[in-house]
Amino acid sequence: MDSSMECTLKSETGFDLLELSGEVDLHFSPKLREKILGSLKIGNPLLIDMENVSYIDSSGIASLVEGFQTAKSSKLAYGLLNISPTALQVLTLTRLDKIFNLFSSTEQFKQQL
Amino acid sequence: MSDAGTSNTPGSNAISIRDLVVDYGPRRILSDVDLDIPMGQIMVIMGQSGAGKTTLLRCMLGLKKPTSGSINILGTDIATAKQRDINKVRKQIGVAFQGGALFSSMSVAENIQLALREHTNLDEKTIEIMTRIKLDMVNMLAAENLMPAELSGGMTKRAALARAIIMDPKLLFFDEPSAGLDPSTAADLDQLIITLKNTMRMTIIVVTHELDSIFKIADHIAVVSAGRILATGTPQEITASTDPEIQGMLKRKPRETIIDTDAHLARLVGGQA
Predict the structure, then answer these.
(1) pTM for this structure?
(2) What is the ipTM for the molecules in this complex?
(3) What is the dihedral of CA B11, B13, B14, B20, to 10 degrees?
């Protein structure tokens, strides 16, 4: 089964923006984890744009959760932007929709900084 | 022979079986079975004990080589494929066995993590979080450190389900999910199966004869009888069937009502009646 994920980290003013697209599965979640933890390790607040994520499995969710925990203990802002209905369903099933900070615009996230 | 679906898109077939025949020695267990299972839907395989349901399940899991015919699963004909290709298909399949089949010497969490440790290079933290996500999905988070012997029947089935879905399989096989459970626990499990289909994009094949469960969860039903597919259809189509054997199953009539006298006599006394 072919699957693909694009993962681009952009440096914005005051925070990092990680743009994801495609399918986040067992093959690509290690790359996602590396990008998330790498950005947080530098000490940058992180916003993850998930608008173009068509599918995310539990290994991808686990990477998001680990990022959330790391950001929290480092007192860094961390959020998910424009989460797709498909990805939201998975978060809802695991009750993580109540834990993550979900944003519908970059401006909304900036107000948290 | 029709083309089996090879993509992972809705509308294609996750499984396509053609002309399947299985013999055990001189006994024919499955005869000329044709079956399509659409991607992303729940197919319930129902039938009485001894009808051939388990053999059909074993064939789909690649555990039993058919005598003839094709079994196309996610684009691979596992009836003729090399073992290496069958193993690739198996990594996309989760199975929850009737008895749970948990390893008694491992905790619930260790049982669930086993496939991730065997088949992936994920780091320890990711494995831990994935395990807890799956335990939470089946409402078993508090039981992660328990041993299988400490679990009730319902908990064992839920732990087996968590293990079956740990790799986010494209196909989930569930053998008799409701058997031996009280109605409330069985209803919870049915709802969980529907939720998994809707949120995890899984194609789910459930083998059961529990009527309440069948009509709650099934998008499609295949009725197996005497080694053949007697009928396939939506729950509404199966309910509307005029076939006396299907109506017998639905009304739980004793199977003797449709008995073939000569064949039954031959079975009882041996040889030809």
Answers:
(1) 0.81
(2) 0.86
(3) 160
